[in-house]
Amino acid sequence: MSCKYRAVVIGVSAGGMATLSELFPKIPSNFPIPIFVVQHIHKSQSEYLITYYNGLSNLTIKEAKDKEKAVPGNIYFAPPDYHMLLEEDETFSISIDEKVNYSRPSIDVLFESAADVYKNALVGIILTGANNDGTEGIRIIKQNGGYTIAQEPEEAEFLVMPKSAIDTGKIDKVLTLSEISDFINYLLKNTKQLKRRIS
Length: 199
What we know:
The protein is α/β, with parallel strands linked by helices and 199 residues long. It has one domain: Rossmann fold (3-Layer(aba) Sandwich). The strands form 2 sheets. The chain has a 7-stranded parallel sheet. α3 packs parallel to α4 and α4 runs parallel beside α5. The longest helix has 13 residues. It is globular and about 30 Å long. The N and C termini lie far apart (30 Å).
């Protein structure tokens, strides 16, 4: 059965380093679609984190470059202090437009642009964070028929961001971090509609 989904977007903020350090090693090297990440970090942390995450991951982790084509086998991070958007031809647009939700890069900006490109073939994931960036993006992903996942708030180091997403009523699955990578792989192998569970 061919895979319905063509991309995964992840939004993470406070508590993100420990969270992604647990998630990335569980994503297999044959993961068949690209992953796009907005993590709220200080500019000085970027180079260190990319190197650190690459040491843990089975996939190649890199900062997205303007006009670069997104391809499977890579996890792309928004450069610090730049918004990352997807264009219709699945290339990146890197922008210094105004902050959204006090953030640049903004999770909402990535999620909304990716939803416009991938429609119902997008998986959106909200992880730990101390603000509500990503909440509107989750609404747009669901509005376009995509699949949405939030980290279990009680497990998250900072529960505000996943709880805000859950409160929209647009989250399909609420999962612990240890469940998320297994579930993504399940999604990619199953194109049927999955029953929504909110907990």
